[in-house]
Design brief:
mainly alpha, 2 helices
């Protein structure tokens, strides 16, 4: 009798075995992915705050439209 059978009192299914392997083998990768996602969200929030501040400053000095104009080719 295997360890899983002793713990659960039943025969493990292939799906359950794959989920158990997935949990063990990919746990560190998931943790890294979540940390990377949180970091990306923080960076996006910081960029958005910087953009809002730039728009505020440009409007305060009377620059009008804060969106940058595209350069014309050859200019």
């Amino acid at each position: 009798m295997g360890l899983v059978q002793l713990v659960h009192g039943e025969r493990p299914s292939v799906g359950r075995a794959l989920r158990a392997l997935d949990e063990r083998l990919l746990a560190g990768g998931r943790r890294t992915a979540l940390e990377n996602a949180r970091s990306a969200v923080r960076e996006d929030e910081e960029r958005a705050a910087a953009h809002r501040e730039a728009v505020r400053v440009l409007r305060a000095v009377g620059a009008g439209d804060p969106s940058p104009a595209l350069p014309t080719p050859g200019a």
